[in-house]
């Protein structure tokens, strides 16, 4: 199977914060799960470098837009490097090949009559350098309170309205196209109103930082039209033979991950653009929720404190951050961030549950046996737990296919809970002396469960899980296919006690 996952391409006007890190981490974890399952994976991320926002950011800094983007893109590349993000390609919309495909696509649509010119009437705020429609205005002024003047200017429009019914039919026939379900209904609701054509140009007199229209050099392309095309250019569309083949191999499997604030552009503009270009639609568009500040505001540059990934990494480590982002949120819903929420999640599930099970099992094995013990595996409880572990492996795969990462991790946590109960019942620490065979069975079973857990959580916490595998005496790679058999840990293999894998995080009370 092939799997293609994308993140939105980020505007390079800002430092990356936890909102950006969120989408990117989810994409990374999904990519790693699919590699674990043996799929061929392509993971694309990148930066959105044209348009007003970037131009403004450059002006404020007193540099050219190109200088600005070349410098700021490094922050994103650096952040993803620090976070171990395993993307296959990083696309920048200022790359020549991308711009060329944008222009080729525009030329094709223009020739086909899918793009036409017309007068555009709107309100322009000189101070904001922005165009507003009548309904954007507040008391006859720009939303920023600045004065506006009425402007009529020629622009180019994409015949988006022509595809309205085709899009509605597609969404209705393909229930998994827009997810989660609530967002699908929102878009179907939105499509009950007549769809307007999309203005895809900006006169250079107002904005010159963009991809020039191939049929009118006085204009640049509207930034979203340029940006959305990254999802096909980044994997080879419209390029040399080999790249085109790669595009054809992966495109039908495309999963776009994005925040709910940019759902309309992805679920309406993008599919209609693809229809006009005669490109099939991606498999799934998944809109996730927002990370909110404690006071319920979306975390963004304009709304107060932004939590950086560095801050979270300082508190709980990189893999703690990855675990938290994947686990804390029901994928699709909003979630609240605070240091307390973070620390209590990590302490309860990683330190107390997984970490504790690992250290007590390994500790007892080291104390009473010379390595992984020989075990009869004959108790009903043992057989039952083995079955649960194998069923968990299947459940996780199915949950990853449905993109519900929090549930997949939840399945592993349930397996850990069952194993803790199993040990509490068999009490190997009590039986170790008078009935070593019983203790051996209980401890071997717990080690085997830990082997399953190391594989199943390796996409979320690659380093910690590799370390866990080593400690329980598993010297091979972590492979999903090894979860179709129970009992692969070899008796006699060395276990390693070491420092706690997940030390409890103690925080001083905030004054
Ligand atoms: N450049 C466009 C995307 C073009 S894709 C063809 C853009 N960039 S962005 O940098 O502003 O935002 C990118 C993503 O970050 C969006 O999916 C947005 O939802 C996400 N987040 C920004 N702040 C966020 C939170 N506080 N929480 C979760 N995600 C948030 O939009």
Describe this entry's structure for a reader:
By secondary structure, the chain is of the alpha/beta class. 49% of the residues lie in helices and 14% in strands. It has 17 helices and 16 strands. Strands 1, 2, 3, 4, 8, 13 and 14 form a 7-stranded parallel β-sheet that branches. Helix 2 crosses helix 3 (65-82), helix 12 (339-368) runs antiparallel to helix 16 (436-456) and helix 15 packs antiparallel against helix 16 (436-456). The longest helix is centred in the last third of the chain and has 30 residues, at 339-368. It is elongated and about 90 Å long. The two termini are 53 Å apart. 5'-O-[(L-methionyl)-sulphamoyl]adenosine (MSP) binds next to strand 2, helix 1, helix 7 and strand 13.
Compute the number of structural domains: 2
Q: Which second-level CATH architecture of the largest domain applies? A: 3-Layer(aba) Sandwich
Molecular shape: elongated
In helices, the fraction of residues equals 40-55%
CATH superfamily of the largest domain: HUPs
The main pleated sheet reads as: 7 strands, parallel
How many individual β-strands?
16
Structural class: alpha/beta
Weakly predicted, low-confidence segments: none
Q: On the 0-100 scale, what is the average pLDDT? A: 94
Question: Which helices and strands appear, and what pairs or packs with what?
Answer:
Blueprint (H helix, E strand, L loop, with lengths): L1 E5 L3 E2 L6 H19 L3 E9 L3 H10 L3 H18 L6 E4 L3 H16 L3 E11 L4 E3 L16 E10 L5 H10 L4 E2 L1 H10 L7 E2 L1 E3 L8 E2 L2 E6 L1 H6 L1 H4 L7 H10 L3 E6 L3 H15 L6 E5 L2 E2 L16 H20 L6 E2 L2 H30 L11 H22 L3 H22 L1 H7 L1 H21 L5 H10 L40
Parallel strand pairs: 1-3, 1-13, 2-3, 3-4, 8-14, 13-14, 15-16
Antiparallel strand pairs: 5-6, 5-7, 7-9, 10-12, 11-12
The site of 5'-O-[(L-methionyl)-sulphamoyl]adenosine has 21 residues, from strand 2, helix 1, helix 7 and strand 13.
């Amino acid at each position: 199977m092939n799997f293609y996952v994308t993140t939105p391409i980020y505007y390079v006007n800002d430092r990356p914060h936890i909102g950006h890190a969120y989408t990117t981490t989810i994409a990374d974890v999904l990519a790693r799960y699919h590699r674990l399952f043996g799929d061929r994976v392509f993971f694309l991320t990148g930066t959105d470098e044209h348009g007003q926002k970037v131009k403004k950011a450059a002006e404020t800094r007193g540099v050219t837009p190109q200088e600005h983007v070349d410098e700021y893109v490094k922050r994103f590349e650096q952040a993803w490097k620090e976070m171990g993000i395993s993307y296959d390609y990083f696309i920048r919309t200022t790359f020549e090949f991308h711009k060329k495909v944008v222009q080729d696509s525009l030329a094709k649509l223009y020739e086909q009559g899918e793009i036409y010119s017309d007068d555009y009437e709107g309100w322009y705020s000189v101070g904001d350098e922005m165009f507003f429609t009548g309904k954007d205005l507040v008391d006859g002024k720009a939303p920023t309170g600045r004065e506006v003047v009425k402007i009529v200017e020629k622009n180019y429009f994409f015949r988006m309205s022509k595809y309205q019914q085709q899009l509605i039919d597609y969404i209705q026939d393909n229930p998994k196209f827009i997810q989660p379900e609530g967002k699908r209904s929102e878009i179907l609701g939105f499509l009950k109103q007549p769809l307007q054509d999309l203005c895809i140009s900006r006169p250079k007199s107002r904005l010159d930082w963009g991809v020039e229209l191939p049929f009118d050099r006085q204009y640049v392309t509207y930034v979203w039209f340029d940006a959305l095309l990254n999802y096909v250019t980044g994997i080879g569309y419209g390029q040399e033979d080999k790249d085109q083949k790669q595009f054809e191999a992966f495109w039908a499997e495309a999963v776009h991950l994005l925040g709910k604030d940019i759902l309309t552009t992805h679920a309406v503009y993008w599919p209609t653009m693809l229809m006009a270009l005669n490109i099939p639609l991606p498999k799934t568009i998944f809109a996730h929720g927002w990370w909110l500040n404690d006071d319920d505001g979306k975390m963004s540059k304009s709304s107060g404190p932004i939590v950086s990934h560095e801050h979270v990494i300082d508190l709980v480590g990189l893999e703690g951050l990855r675990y938290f982002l994947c686990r804390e949120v029901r994928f699709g819903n909003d979630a609240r961030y605070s240091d307390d929420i973070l620390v209590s999640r990590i302490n309860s599930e990683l330190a107390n549950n997984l970490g504790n099970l690992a250290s007590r099992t390994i500790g007892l094995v080291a104390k009473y046996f010379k390595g992984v013990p020989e075990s009869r595996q004959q108790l009903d409880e043992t057989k039952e737990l083995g079955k649960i572990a194998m069923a968990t492996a299947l459940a996780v795969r199915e949950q990853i296919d449905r993109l519900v990462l929090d549930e997949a991790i939840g399945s592993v946590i349930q397996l850990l809970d069952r194993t803790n109960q199993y040990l509490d019942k068999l009490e190997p620490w009590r039986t170790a002396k008078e009935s070593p065979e019983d203790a051996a069975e209980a401890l071997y079973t717990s080690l085997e469960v830990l082997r399953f857990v190391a594989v199943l959580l390796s996409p979320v916490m690659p380093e910690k899980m590799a370390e866990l595998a080593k400690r329980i005496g598993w010297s091979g790679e972590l492979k999903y296919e090894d979860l179709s058999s129970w009992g692969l840990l070899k008796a006699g293999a060395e276990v390693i006690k070491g420092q706690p894998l997940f030390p409890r995080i103690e925080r001083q009370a905030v004054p």
